[in-house]
Write a structure and sequence with these properties.
The structure holds two protein chains of two kinds.
Chain A (H helix, E strand, L loop, with lengths): L12 H18 L13 E6 L4 H13 L3 E6 L11 H10 L4 E6 L4 H8 L3 E7 L5 H15 L6 E5 L6 H12 L3 E5 L15 E3 L2 H4 L5 E4 L15 H8 L3 H4 L7 E3 L12 H4 L6 H20 L4
Helix pairs in contact in A: 1-5, 1-11, 2-11, 3-4, 5-6, 5-11
Chain B lengths: L2 E9 L4 E7 L2 E6 L7 E5 L4 E4 L1 E6 L12 H10 L2 E6 L10 H14 L3 E4 L15 H6 L6 E2 L9 H10 L6 E4 L12 E2 L2 H6 L3 E2 L1 H18 L3 E3 L5 H12 L4 E5 L1 H5 L21 H13 L4 E2 L28 H30 L16 E11 L18 E11 L2 E5 L2 E2 L2
Parallel strand pairs in B: 1-4, 1-5, 6-7, 7-8, 9-10, 10-13, 11-12, 13-14, 14-15
Antiparallel strand pairs in B: 1-2, 2-3, 5-16, 16-17, 17-18, 18-19
Classes of the chains: A alpha/beta, B alpha/beta.
Amino acid sequence: MIRHLLSAADLDAATATLVLDTAHEMALLADREVKKLPTLRGRTVVNLFYEDSTRTRISFEAAAKRLSADVINFSAKGSSVSKGESLKDTALTLQAMGADGVVVRHPASGAPHRLAHWVDGSVLNAGDGTHEHPTQALLDAYTMRSRLGRLEGLNVAIVGDVLHSRVARSNVLLLHTLGAKVTLVAPPTLLPVGVEAWPARTSYQLDSVLPDSDVVMMLRVQRERMDEAYFPSAREYSRRYGLDTARMRRLPEHAIVMHPGPMNRGMEITPEVADSVRSTIVEQVANGVSVRMAVLYLLLGGKV
Amino acid sequence: MTTYLIKGVSVLGGPATDLVIRDGVVAQMGNDLSAVDAREIDAGGLVALPGLVDLHTHLREPGREDAETVETGSRAAAMGGYTAVCAMANTSPVADTAGVVEQVWRLGREAGLVDVQPVGAVTVGLEGTQLAELGAMADSAAQVRIFSDDGHCVSDPRLMRRALEYVKAFDGVVAQHAEEPRLTVGAQMHEGEVAAGLGMTGWPAVAEESIIARDVLLAEHVGARLHVCHVSTAGSVEILRWAKRRGVRVTAEVTPHHLLLTDERATSYDPVFKVNPPLRTASDVAALRTALIEGVVDIIATDHAPHTLEDKECEWAYARPGMVGLETALSIVVDVALDTLGWDGIAERMSRTPARIAGLTDHGLDIGVGVPANITLVDPAARWRVEPADLASRSRNTPYAGLTLPARVVATFLRGEPTVLDGKAVK
């Protein structure tokens, strides 16, 4: 039984597979006329967002509402938080309001771990700093499995700013648990010191990795990183690590291209690639709702 | 002044002896002593050490009296067996003038629990651009001899060179917080495997080592004394070993927490383990222990850094770095090094040498007739559980909460007056 989902490492293979299977059931619901289940009726889910993230917040909100939960959106801007309220006091407030689940997005790594000390409900990490984003990894795994039929043995290349990426961290952990083989591709400056200990291979050369990849996942790279000398210029970055049509041709026929969004078109990915048939980017968004429904259902329904 | 007769104490682990403390000094030392009107202390099984001296204490006054005051910090020090502490300069206002260092010095005298020796800032406002009036602080009533921007590194090499040179005029020493600031922008914890997994910005060992390497070369070049604060990496130890072999006049300290804890603690995201320099790896801890035994690292200093609850009960990234340490230092050192150092080695590293570096002539003296009675009595057999609420410090940010530690301070004497008796603060 897990109470919180703070890290992809909280999920063993059986639990992760259960989430993916449940998400599949939830996806079938989306094709029905009435998209709602009564499962979480009377339960309260709080979306506690300390960072703007319309995409993730809406995804969690839709997921919770389709399960008939009461949803409270708590944005840090224009709230008591902007008046200096501490995370602990906010947590105690949510606790007093009887939140059964708290979905938290926070710019500080580990904030959801702290929050979990102060609330009785389930804490779902919706992205913390440069640490993790476990539901993103689940929806990515779900997308891979539905497109390619399996996860075991897949070669997955994760390309870009691994150092600052919570998506990369969660994906490495979850994909390893589920038997996929991950290769991290980045300039050496954007791989963390200590990455050798991760269950993943690393490469500095995108071109040599692509022919063996079943999945290539492009990470968002902020242009401002060049101001901190991580790379010389956006142009050089995209020349060496961006995915364009020519590079895409190096991929095997069946390979898919993923991106967690939001994209920097023209930086890490060209519009032609992003809009190609290999791209699962829009699908990932749709799958996000199903996967988050599954997670809320299993955590709050006490089924995991 | 009360006379004290201490019966059957083991000085530095030697055979049991009696001590008579009268008029601020050790009046008699020997077997079967008696003294009229003396208060007798049964010290059977206890070890006597010269009163401990901390070269690195944050007392937070003036400015952050909600975290600690000179008085509460002095009490914590006495409870930890200290008779003198060097109060770091990063107060508000900064101790960068004769006025502020005299204020801290006077507050210490008024509290009367330990000798509070103020450290003066190297640069105005700790800003690293202009030398503070070092001579004025040296000439003040506080007689400052240690200068440090601790919390900040004197990173400008030219300014560091000048500071090292300038304080030679009054036998001062610059205590450097070795941290190249351009390499630690946004740093949260030791850069390595653990930080990579936790998604926290790393504080690389090289940021410390590069400054130490530069500074030992500067100290050699200008023939000045250098003290290195809170050495935390194996690489720093290698540089210090090299510098000492060359005859550079450098001394170095290590904190108890860097001798015991590793960066694995950060996996809890509990900011009580956030400290600067950060907790390092197990191999760094091992190298620091060896360096302490070999004398490459000269002393243990606490870097006692009290912080209020609200500065620690928050997200890691927003928490202030630092941990309290005065009341646990001796126990940690006993735990990790008594079997290799012995009591004499501990006295060397926690009393004699720090007193010598700080120029505190009344402290760090071996217990003997006529010597100022700055003495700590320790029960080496006692074990105690660290309860944050029981600490004498105003702050509770100890990383050892719930841990059972060996050795307990039973009594502390400051110039013949007990500041701690029966393990309790006297005033």
